[in-house]
Amino acid sequence: MSTSEHPLSPVDAIVPDTKDWTWVLERPCPDCGLDTPEVVPTDVAAMVRANAHSWLAVLAGDEEELRRRPAPEIWSDLEYACHVRDVFRLFLVRLNLMLDQDGPLFPNWNQDETAAAERYREQRPKTVAGELAEAAEALAAAFEAVAGEQWRRTGNRSDGARFTVESFARYLIHDPVHHLFDVTGERP
């Protein structure tokens, strides 16, 4: 029987990631190799599109293999892809808040609760591929539209992290790049 026919068991639970990943704005990631401080914010739109293209190749694989976790505490390729799709969606909302409001406070988002509530591991890879591509394109287009002083607009997380649109773009791109490395082992 496939995992899609059974609800996830407690053994499928992921240990929440509580790290503050804003350090990637200061130095290269030793895992995925992305040198985020060197990312040119105006290149992020193209990077989002390229990353999405790579995820589509991953999602074209065998459905059962996409659902298989390498270890009980590590997301499957499908779960990672769902997360990346939702990161693209979330960051579009946050980018629009930064562009439309002065110093907005971002709504909290718990990625682990979302993964469980949305049953990432049970989603259909072809559907996820379409949604991921759509979310990536919307986010890329929004970043392409940013100009001039808009790069200096700010937004805040509830944990006190403060971003400009410029730092937000660089922070964003690390997430899907890092997760593609998690899945493929390929560094940018």
What does this structure look like?
Helix 1 runs parallel beside helix 6, helix 3 packs parallel to helix 5 and helix 3 packs antiparallel against helix 6. The N terminus is likely disordered. The longest helix has 24 residues. With 188 residues, this protein is mainly alpha-helical. It is globular, with a radius of gyration of 16 Å. 49% of the residues lie in helices and 3% in strands. It starts with 43 loop residues before the first helix and ends with a helix.
Question: What is the oligomer described by this structure?
Answer: single chain
How many helices in DSSP terms? 6
Helix content: 40-55%
What does the largest sheet look like?
A: 2 strands, antiparallel
Radius of gyration: 16 Å
Question: Distance between the terminal alpha carbons, to the nearest Å?
Answer: 36 Å
SS class: mainly alpha
Strand-residue proportion: under 5%
Order of strands across the biggest sheet? 1-2
